[in-house]
Amino acid sequence: MPKSGLLISLFLFLFPPFSYSAVITDRNGREIKTFLSEGDLYSSPVKIEKVSPWVILASVAAEDKRFFEHSGVDYRAVVRALWQNAKSGKAVSGASTITQQLVKNMEKRSGRSFWSKLAELPRVFSLEKSSTKKEIMENYLNAIFYGNMSRGIEAAARRYFGVSAGELSLAQSALLSGIPQSPSKYNPAVNLTAAVKRQKLILRRMLDLGFIDEELYRMALSEKIVLADSRGYPASLHFVNRAARLFPGGEKLSVSIDAALNEEAREILNSHLSALSGSNVTNGAVLAVDNATGEILAWVGSSDFFDAARSGQVDGVTSLRQPGSALKPFLYALAFLKGSKPSDLIDDSPYFSAGKYKPRNYDESYHGPVSIRRALACSYNVPAVYMAEKLGADVFLNFLREFGFSSLSKNADFYGTGLALGNGEVALLELVNAYSVLARGGVRLPVKYLKDGEEPGKAERIIPPEYAYMITDILSDNFARAPAFGLNSPLNLPFAFAAKTGTTKDYRDNWAVGYTPAWTVGAWVGNFNGEPMRKVSGISGAAPVVRDMAHLLNKIRPGGGFKKPKGLAEIEICPESGLLKSIRCPSGARELFHKRNAPSKICDLPHSGPGQEAAGFSPGSRLEFPKNGDVFKLDPQVPEKSQALLLKASVTVSAWNIDGKEYPGDSREFWLAPAPGEHKVYFYFQKGGKRVKSPTVKFLIIK
Predict the structure, then answer these.
(1) Pairing state of beta strands 23-25 and 252-254?
(2) For residue range 521-563, what is the model confidence (pLDDT) as tens digits?
(3) Residue 227: inside a domain, yes or no?
(4) What residue numbers bound the domain in which 496 lies?
(5) Which helix (H) or strand (E) holds 197?
(6) Among candidates 228, 234, 143, which has minimal Cα distance to 180?
(7) Fewer C-beta within 10 Å: the chain N or C terminus?
């Protein structure tokens, strides 16, 4: 070590001045939180090369104008101080140099009597003799107290102005340099008027000393002093507190989140919470992860960390709540593993499970035979409970644990088939990470909290990519979910996006999770005190939050489209049977299948078709409009009665059957009032003196 630094190093060893604060920075290097050091102060060391030159000049002007000339003691200042103090009869002026103040701070002396200053002189002279002025100034700027629990210029710059010491302007530097003389009196956070008055005095000294010219002087005087919010990035506080607990020790921690993105996430959340305030909604949480690395990008634990009235310090990302229907994708992924297909039909009719439980759908109706695709996309409860009972609650529970739901710690008997409807408690953290498994094509990665210094988690395949893609395809199928949510729900985005919502039966919690190949984002909305919301579901509560977050994330990290694995095939089926389409089927639909589990049987339902007489039907007797599977959307700008739907038959109709109600007919047409919902239509006509029935057509009208 050079001789010039030996004495300072010895002093630091014998008289350690203070410990430094632990600093947490985001993935882009922004400081998002500084923890108090052992002395209950904020303190961050900084090299003098990274300090604004204005700070050095302002400190010299404020504290020791002959710093670069004297050898530790400014004798002219001492004589002046003695004369002024004698004249006034009390101590009104000091003469301590920057070097003397450094020695005082290194030895942690609190008194400033004549004898204490005299005792310091040998160390002051030794320090000046063995060190450069640059080294003395650097250690001084790191050791001096700037009020507001801030020791050192770096901590002061960040606490008062939210910038580093190197980014301080001339005006800011002059204001901070005036604080050490009396930190309580000149603390701008407490007494801005007094601080600015002293700042102007220091700027005038800098001008008189030739450190600045008239133009710089005027510019600095005109600069408005704007203090930073000392809370820093409040949206990130839940996350940084957790990261600090998980990775204790060290003076600097570089975490994975983007602090600016996190603040935007909180603004999105609070905007929607404000809109829902009339429905007794007070809080929420948001989490986003990078699919490629598992890094956490955004973590908002509540609407306001500092809102004690609404339990703002409770972390909604890690709190355990019931997820509602948000677990259904994993149920059907398990079903696919066990041999089920998206086209398989499940009877959505009144049903009692083995535990004498009668599940009910959210819309309080039943829909008859529905495909797994539609059952999942529309989040029907009855088919889900049926599937859970078929697979076994214990098998489903173990499968969920493979996806990372460790909070489901009870045995299968405790949850039963109700687990399919979310009667267990999970965390948003678990839910988002589980959905990211689907986004990665079935591969699980542990979440990462740090940008640097954290070992990458071990990748583990949970399900084959084909089955993960089949779930993704259903969750991104806007037409499949239209019967329940409409075509223009918050989940319908202009880019590839798979999503699912969840709502508890008493409206205490609602959720939405969505993903692209690049990222996964989830939101929870509710009340920390457990009070129910007023008819706020996942589609109206959490889904709009996820939608806006998805737009924001897609701008930063566009994900592209989902890549279909080679092991899948698209095959045309009959939507009424789920089997291969025959020539008699009135319509067909494309469906995804694993090549090893594709249907081989042709539909044998009694449709009418060319050249054939199906049982109970007549060839050519069909509804020409609408077609089976059509979807119609009502125009909100046009009165509903003006949007009646004209049914057209291929023959003269004797009677129409619409949604189970019969209407007389005497022509081939019938005007149907446009009631939103799913409709089933068939008709009767006379042939050879017999009453003959047409095939049934199903179509959907949405708002």
Answers:
(1) parallel
(2) 999 999 999 999 999 999 999 999 999 999 999 999 998 899 9
(3) no
(4) 265-556
(5) helix 192-208
(6) 143
(7) N
